[in-house]
Design a protein that fits this description.
Elements: H1 2-14, H2 45-56, E1 60-65, E2 70-75, H3 81-102, E3 106-108, E4 122-131, E5 134-144, H4 152-171
Antiparallel strand pairs: 1-2, 1-5, 3-4, 4-5
């Protein structure tokens, strides 16, 4: 099962960086014991967020890497500014610290940030982006509370994409300066 997951990425690295349109398969396609197939390795961090949004059929996905002061995002539709701001605030102040401490992904279909506060208007699944034993960031997918519930297989798929995000975070450079 591990080789089935790794081989597409190795093939992508060896092949040219030409992308094929429409390469994303239906979510939860048969991928053997591993769950959801990742048909093509995303070629940058924003593509990882896009791939998460499309394969999980969720409202939005974020790649948050505080060490690089970087947050990439992709939305399935036109994002509402208040929802986008609240999502980023949840990632920065609650999800990132929780993932950094727990070091594993979580599924939150109904949750409160404060015990006496209202339930958040989102369903969230997130996975740590780690490299060499260090949690460097979080990959998070959001759905509206009235949308479909996230499941364990969604978390597993996001954990696979987090591996790709970690690889791209290692190779990320500032396009303005050309520095790593």
């Amino acid at each position: 099962a591990w080789l089935d997951f790794v081989l597409p990425f190795v093939a992508h690295d060896v092949a040219s960086h030409a992308t094929t349109a429409g390469a994303v398969e239906a979510p939860h396609a048969d991928a053997g014991a591993g769950g959801t197939a990742i048909p093509e390795a995303p070629d940058d961090l924003s593509a990882v967020a896009r791939c998460a949004t499309e394969t999980l059929q969720c409202h939005a996905a974020f790649v948050y890497l505080p060490s690089l002061a970087l947050a990439e995002e992709h939305h399935a539709g036109a994002p509402q500014p208040a929802e986008r701001d609240r999502s980023l605030e949840l990632i920065r102040s609650h999800l990132w610290p929780m993932i950094e401490r727990r070091r594993r992904g979580v599924v939150l279909n109904r949750f409160r940030v404060h015990e006496a506060g209202p339930a958040e208007p989102f369903r969230v699944v997130c996975a740590p982006i780690h490299r060499r034993g260090v949690v460097r960031g979080v990959l998070a997918a959001f759905n509206h509370r009235d949308a479909r519930r996230f499941e364990v297989r969604d978390r597993l798929h996001l954990e696979r994409l987090a591996i790709v995000a970690a690889r791209h975070a290692d190779a990320w450079f500032d396009p303005g300066t050309g520095l790593l």
